[in-house]
Specification:
The protein is of the alpha/beta class. It has 3 domains: 1-38; 44-139, Oxidized Rhodanese, domain 1; 177-253, Cytochrome b5-like heme/steroid binding domain (Flavocytochrome B2, Chain A, domain 1, Roll). The chain is built from 7 helices and 9 strands.
Length: 257
């Protein structure tokens, strides 16, 4: 009788372990799938000094100015082509693949990163973003050119500049979840992890945004990171939460669970 009980207990333990192993395997496959979906390409920044060295040593490359035609006409970098950022996807075949392409806007704050990351989504790993943009290039004493008879200058970014963003297909959350601030930290957009941000108690998935690659927002000057409550930061920004609320809602930010 005792042996039979021990045998039953042993068999029960073995079955439980088998079920646990199966559950862990399914979970690992699920997490791997999620991580793969959230790993998105990002164009790297290149410094002005490095580009100057390219010019000095005769390296062939192309500047692409993603500002408005009026801005380009007033002053642009040498040999630059002008493709406004909102046209870059439809005109991506104009981007050469056989040499480096350096994209810039006024400060390379959001137009250039958006365009660069969009092209990275299409597998163009030869695209880089000029750190500091046209303003820094001009301030450093490098030559700029104008398409008009006027003296070339880098004019300020237009106040009425339209913002048109297109993103890859975004994940939909049929069942929403609540996260504490500690749990939110785990979704920082780094190393393939999804990028979540909280604003006014609501958690949004910005993983697919072309301005949130790697979990850092362009532009935020090192202040906007995924995995955090950005309510105070966005309340102080010019556009507030106008754009973040367009992303999928994951759930709500709670104090305790």
């Amino acid at each position: 009788m005792q042996k039979t009980s021990l045998s039953l207990a042993y068999n029960s333990i073995v079955r439980s372990l088998a079920i646990l192993i199966a559950v862990v395997s399914v979970f690992n496959v699920f997490m791997t799938s999620c991580l793969a979906e959230s790993t998105l390409p990002r164009s790297e920044f290149v410094g002005i000094q490095e580009v100057r060295n390219w010019i000095k040593h005769g390296r062939e490359f192309l500047f692409v100015d993603v500002r408005e035609p009026k801005e380009f006409s007033s002053g642009h970098l040498p040999g630059a082509a002008n493709i406004p950022y909102y046209e870059i996807e439809d005109r991506r075949e104009e981007i050469p693949l056989d040499r480096p392409v350096v994209i810039y806007c006024t400060h390379s704050s959001w137009r250039a990163p958006y365009a660069g990351n969009l092209l990275a989504d299409y597998g163009m790993n030869n695209v880089k973003i000029l750190d500091g943009g046209a303003s820094s290039w001009n301030a450093g004493g490098q030559i700029i050119y104008a398409s008009s008879p006027k003296e070339p200058e880098i004019i300020p970014k237009p106040k009425d500049l339209k913002k048109e963003f297109k993103y890859p297909v975004q994940r939909k959350y049929k069942t929403q979840i609540d996260l504490t601030e500690k749990q939110l930290r785990e979704f920082d957009g780094k190393n393939g992890r999804p990028a979540y941000v909280a604003v006014h108690g609501v958690i949004y998935d910005v993983t697919q945004s072309r301005l949130w690659r790697g979990g850092e927002h362009d532009p935020s000057d090192g202040q906007g990171y995924a995995g955090y409550d950005l309510t105070e930061l966005l309340d102080l920004s010019p556009h507030g939460d106008k754009y973040v609320v367009k992303f999928p809602v994951v759930g709500r930010l709670v104090e305790n669970k």
